[in-house]
């Protein structure tokens, strides 16, 4: 028995959207848009958070091979600070859809809110990445592309352990910020711990 549903409606070309990195202290927020064949099935595809890194990478290869169309986009920390993380997440999704070659007719998005895109009909689905293949596929692509990005920039800023925490607010990441200050990749509008501890330290340069 299949865990997820193939589509929300079957009359229009449907794209699934999801993001990765919304709750991080550092790095961009990534979003992916995926259009899958109507008859696509997978016993392994699920919410990216429920899968191991190895399975996510295997699924990424499969998704990119079978998808009718897909795209991954990002919004930088500087942009996040200007427009806030919620708007940045939607902007990343809009950018991903802008990159698609296919004509989009219907949107399904993980979560309970969305900023309309080109007046297209859409449906917000809470925990949609565990309910629909295209949203789950988008969660896989957004997560794996963002992880790769954080691995890359971690080489220049090893003190933050981004290769492990991916920019999320772990205890060690918070301590590293308080000890070394922020980097160019940190979101300056995000608090490290409590209101008394400011994130506006002297920026740390790449090592």
UniProtKB/TrEMBL annotation:
Keywords, in A-Z order: Cytoplasm, Endonuclease, Hydrolase, Manganese, Metal-binding, Nuclease
Q: Which InterPro entries match?
A: RNase_HII, RNase_HII/HIII, RNase_HII/HIII_dom, RNaseH-like_sf, RNaseH_sf
**Pfam families reported in the protein's UniProt record:** RNase_HII
Swiss-Prot/TrEMBL cofactor(s)? Mn(2+); Mg(2+)
GO BP annotations, alphabetical order: DNA replication, removal of RNA primer; mismatch repair
EC number, UniProt record:
3.1.26.4
**Where is the protein localized?**
Cytoplasm
**What catalytic activity is recorded?**
Endonucleolytic cleavage to 5'-phosphomonoester
Tell me which residues make up the RNase H type-2 domain: 12-207
SUPFAM superfamilies tied to this protein: Ribonuclease H-like
Q: Name one GO cellular component term.
A: cytoplasm
| GO MF annotation terms | manganese ion binding; RNA binding; RNA-DNA hybrid ribonuclease activity
> What sort of enzyme, by top EC class, is this?
hydrolase
Which residues are listed for a divalent metal cation binding in this entry? 18-19, 110
Annotated signal sequence range: none
Q: What is the UniProt remark on how the cofactor binds and its stoichiometry?
A: Manganese or magnesium. Binds 1 divalent metal ion per monomer in the absence of substrate. May bind a second metal ion after substrate binding.
Which HAMAP family does this one have? RNase_HII_B
What role does it play?
Endonuclease that specifically degrades the RNA of RNA-DNA hybrids.
Q: Which NCBIfam families match?
A: PRK00015.1-3
Q: What is this protein called?
A: Ribonuclease HII
Organism, by scientific name, is: Candidatus Sphingobacterium stercoripullorum
> Coding gene?
rnhB
């Amino acid at each position: 028995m299949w865990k997820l549903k193939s589509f929300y409606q079957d009359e229009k070309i449907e794209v699934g959207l999801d993001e990765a990195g919304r709750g991080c202290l550092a790095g961009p927020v990534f979003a992916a848009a995926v259009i899958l064949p109507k008859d696509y099935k997978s016993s392994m595809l699920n919410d990216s958070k429920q899968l191991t890194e190895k399975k996510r990478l295997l699924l990424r290869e499969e998704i990119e091979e079978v998808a009718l169309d897909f795209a991954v986009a990002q919004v930088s920390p500087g942009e996040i600070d200007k427009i806030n993380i919620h708007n940045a997440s939607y902007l990343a999704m809009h950018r991903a859809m802008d990159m698609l070659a296919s004509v989009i007719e219907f949107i399904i998005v993980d979560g309970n809110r969305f900023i309309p895109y080109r007046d297209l009909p859409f449906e917000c689905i809470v925990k949609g990445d565990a309910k629909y293949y295209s949203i789950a596929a988008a969660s896989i692509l957004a997560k794996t592309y963002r992880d790769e990005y954080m691995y890359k920039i971690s080489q220049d800023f090893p003190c933050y352990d981004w290769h492990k925490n991916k920019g999320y607010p772990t205890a060690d990441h918070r301590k590293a910020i308080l000890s070394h200050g922020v980097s160019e990749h940190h979101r300056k509008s995000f608090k490290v711990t409590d209101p008394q501890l400011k994130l506006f330290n002297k920026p740390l340069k790449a090592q």
